[in-house]
Amino acid sequence: MIMQIVTRTFTNQKEANAFEKFFSDKWKDLIKDIPKCKLRLIQDKNRLNTFNAIWEFPNNSTQNRVMELIKIHNKKFEGNIPKKTTNLSGNVIIEIVSN
């Protein structure tokens, strides 16, 4: 499994909220036919002007497919999308789950 964490820092909370709504509205339909792809949006209550996404992909091919879709669909957002302030991607090497 591959995890990718993306954070974008917007100039204000209003823009961050608009992007989060745009992103969540689009992506629930865009990934519904992509097997084993998971998206989580995380809200940091101490930094409300950030957009934080955690992606899970079964393999590199799926990750690349989704990243290409992001390039296409993010262009449809009517506001300014800042560059990624954090972008971390890698294979899960250990997963510990409690009961």
Task: Describe it.
- The structure is a single chain.
- This protein has helices at 13-30, 60-74; strands at residues 2-9, 38-42, 50-57, 84-91.
- The protein has 99 residues and is an alpha+beta fold.
- A 4-stranded antiparallel sheet has the order 2-3-1-4.
- Strand 2 and strand 3 (50-57) form a beta hairpin.
- The protein is globular and about 35 Å long.
- The two termini are 21 Å apart.
- The model has no long low-confidence stretch (mean pLDDT 91).
Topology diagram in text:
Elements (H helix, E strand, L loop, with lengths): L1 E8 L3 H18 L7 E5 L7 E8 L2 H15 L9 E8 L8
Antiparallel strand pairs: 1-3, 1-4, 2-3
Question: How would you describe this structure in keywords?
Answer:
alpha+beta, four-stranded antiparallel sheet, 29% strand
- What topology, given as strand order, has the largest sheet? 2-3-1-4
Radius of gyration: 14 Å
Mean pLDDT metric: 91
Order of helices and strands: EHEEHE
Q: Helicity range of the residues?
A: 25-40%
E-strand count: 4
Q: Show unreliable segments.
A: none
Compute the separation of the termini in Å: 21 Å
Largest sheet: 4 strands, antiparallel
**SS content category:** alpha+beta
